[in-house]
Structures are given as structure tokens and as C-alpha cells.
Design goal:
elongated, 7 strands, 4 helices, single chain, alpha+beta, HotDog_dom_sf, MaoC-like_dom, MaoC/PaaZ C-terminal domain-containing protein, seven-stranded antiparallel beta sheet, 21% helix
Amino acid sequence: MPYSYEPHYFEDMEEGLTFESAGRTITESDFVMHSMFTGDWTELHTNKEYSDDGPYGARISQGPMTFIVATGLFQRTGIVERTVFAFLGMNYMDLKNPVFIGDTLQATFECTGVKELSSRDDAGVVTIDTHVHNQDDEEVLAGDMKFMWRKRSHYGESEE
């Protein structure tokens, strides 16, 4: 079920606030495009015959691809549209289970930190715990993402 949220500013973010993404099914094209973009043609991801006899019985996505899909699911919530200046990194990221062609991924995002910046008055740092699950409710990625988030008050936009 797709969810739609309005853009959120730094002032809107508070610890415990959660968002749920729409779902997205992983395709053969996703695998090929990721390999083309990154140059990672490891056979576990790109060779069906090799992978069928491998440890997972099929091709699996590259770990970075799973993370990139998570960032796309976050963007699709709409809360970061024109309100996030930068992705600042992660404190941790765990790839809990493999992702296969045909898996449908959905994510839950929770604000776990809101911090003022002494170096800027137009933005603060927001930490988002991220949990991505497949259609069988198996967690495939857990991690946090840190963003520099725009302040509404600095840009003179009214609070609604």
C-alpha cells in the first residue's frame, strides 16, 4: 500500500516519528543496471548458472544495491523533498538477508535523533533508523542514515 507524506522540515522532526514507504519489486533490470553503473559483475549477482549452484540457490543483489533501494524508498515517502541538503553517512548498516529478483521491498523509517548544528543556522542533523523487509517480512537491511535537514524558520516559510 503506497503512502504519501508532505515534505518535513527540521522543526517537524522529533524522536519516535515514523514513516512507512511504498513497496517496490526488484527486477532483472535492477540487477543489470546496478552492475552496469558500478562495474560490479560478480557472478553471484550476474551469472544464473553459477548462482543456481551457489550458497543461495539463485542470484542475489549486491549489498550496496539493497542500500540504494532503501534510499529510494525513503525519498518516495516525500518527507525529504526539497528539505534535505545532504546525506551525511551512517553509523551502522547490516545486510540481514539476501535480496532476490522478484522480492518486494518495503521500509519503515524512524527518527532517532535531532541535533542542532553550531556551524549552520539554516539546517540541523536528523538520524533515521531504517528497516527494510521483503514480502515475507524478513528484514534485509537495518541501519541508520544521517541527513542535513533544512530548517523552515531560516527560510521564512510559515508553519502550517
